[in-house]
Amino acid sequence: MKIGLLAYHSAINFGATLQLLSTYMYLKNHAHSPIVINWVAADLEESYSNYTPAVQLSAHKQLRKFLWHETPLCRTEQEVAEVIRKEGIEAVIIGSDAVCQHHTRRERTVFPCRTIIGIEPATSDRLFPNPFWALWNDLLPHPIPVAVLSASCQDSQYKFFPKATCEAMKRQILSYKYVSVRDTWTQNMFAHVTNGASVPLVTPDPVFAFLHNAGCLLPSKEEILRKYNLPEKYILLSFINEKSVSQQWINDFQKITKADGCTCIKLPFSQKEGFGQMRKTISLPLSPLDWFAIIKYSAGYVGNNMHPIVVCLHTGTPFFSFDNYGLKRFNGLLTSDKSSKIRHILETAGLADWRTSCISRRYSAPVPNDIYLRLRTFDLDKSNAFADIYYQKYKGMMSKILQSFNTNAV
Predict the structure, then answer these.
(1) Edge-to-edge strands of the sheet including 178-181?
(2) Is the pTM of this model over 0.70?
(3) Is the bond into 285 cis (omega within 30 degrees of 0)?
């Protein structure tokens, strides 16, 4: 079966690339013909070019040619429908990733700010409707089956949605052959907008199956150590800014690890180097495959963002998460981490002690020695057991998606 994949394939984001590649390789390994639907909103593309170093942007474009097969570029719903028709795509999988977002003006209101009240901009991929919601299916001569895989609404404050928006979303959600979400916040959003008609299962991020689906693409440990001049034993630090830790915190942590024969390495984000001065830094451009391998072969990861934690859980790598996800209002005066994907995953895994939320103004960084002790006492048995459970859930999810495509009704 020729199956279209609609996700953040052009995102300059390590996790987004690995998610899509995992799904793509799963389908190839199961004798299907996957093709990435090359929808890129013009304003999103402009955003990437504005906030991403040119070397990383160029490297990602070249890597896409190597990793998967794409359709011609699409900008509109009509162009997506046309490329589906011309390519003979028989079904579409949307996701994984933040493919069901909607952020109302009320949610994006900033107060106080220089103009007293302001509205944060949002690119069209973060506003309903857009092609991630599959309205292009109405433009096809014959609608095709659509599945939504481990979707996230990325902290969308769904209780602010107007009634008309909820009704339009409900129509789309109920038209899907299969739908699952990545976290309970998104699950609650779907239940809210459909008045309980759809309460999707929470299913794993595809990166939890990456080694099974695409492990053959990874470089070896020897190749990684040689290419990046890394020591045998190293710990990765990766912080977006000084809101999680200070430079003094980093200095103290480096002293602790050095005394134990371990070197701290600064791991960059896909769009910038990250915060802090360290003895050694891995620079951009960096391939998502190398990024995954660098984490896998490390003695531990300490820092922000979700996908490094997913990679650690999947590969049995110790970690400590400085969780930067959640809702912030009034310049951080009101915060809540209930929507955090990291919180959901680690509480489910029984590993909540390896996480701290750092979004509140009252936040204070944990003592460096305590964090190093967490790495040394990481519960690997519990982590591995959770990873195996999630892999089994992943296989069940993919099996159900393919079964849903084989039924007659759309």
Answers:
(1) 33-36, 2-6, 91-97, 146-151, 178-181, 201-202
(2) yes
(3) yes
